[in-house]
Amino acid sequence: MAAQLKLGDTTVHVILKDIKNVHLSVYPPTGRVRISAPSRMDLNTIRAFAISKLGWIRRQQKQIGAQEREWPRAYVERETHYVWGRRYLMQVREGARSGVELKHDAIILCQRKGACMTRRHEIMQDWYRQQLKDAIPELQRKWAARMGVSPTSIGVRRMKTMWGSCSPDRGAIRINLELVKKPRECLEYILVHELAHLLEHTHNNRFIAHMDRLLPDWRHRRDELNRLPVPHEDWIY
Known about the structure:
Layout: E1 2-7, E2 10-17, E3 23-27, E4 32-38, H1 43-52, H2 54-65, E5 69-70, E6 80-83, E7 86-94, E8 99-103, E9 106-111, H3 117-147, E10 153-157, E11 164-167, E12 172-176, H4 184-196, H5 205-214, H6 218-227, E13 230-231
Parallel strand pairs: 2-4, 5-13, 7-9, 10-12
Antiparallel strand pairs: 1-2, 3-4, 6-7, 8-9, 11-12
Helix pairs in contact: 3-4, 4-6
């Protein structure tokens, strides 16, 4: 069941489902607010909870609103692109095969003659996806062994509102494709965060204690990730 609550100029999207605890989230790029609550909980109780968190909600929305936006890319000569937090200038080449190569400070996009912007975008997205898929297994082995957890799968997806997600009941983790543009420390933070949900499903004090023990600088990494530009295109990546 879905519903909406109006708290002054703030709209709260409410999802009622078969869970035990209330979860409050504020999502970029617009500061959309969502509460997931147990199906048995009535809307008046949820409203009271939301009002009690209104100060926190507005602080999060202010922080999100201050984030720089990345403008849509056209994949043309000397356009700026990022890989693992480093800035590269694009060079576009024509050839028999499509692909992407990093060389010094350049990111070289090779395309077949006459390729349109949509095709150049697809080439870049496929390359970005492979870079992220290549980076995950080593981190997965390191942290899964250290934490004593066994995720069933870790996939890469285009995600609209989250850097990562976890389904603890299935052991499935999803990582946002956009992380390939951010420093590797940010990917490691998100992966540890999602793996920690296999130990503790919600963001309670036990979860925070796990994060403090496993990755003592996780707050710094989170703040760095939140400080970096987010896509301009309605947070679709």
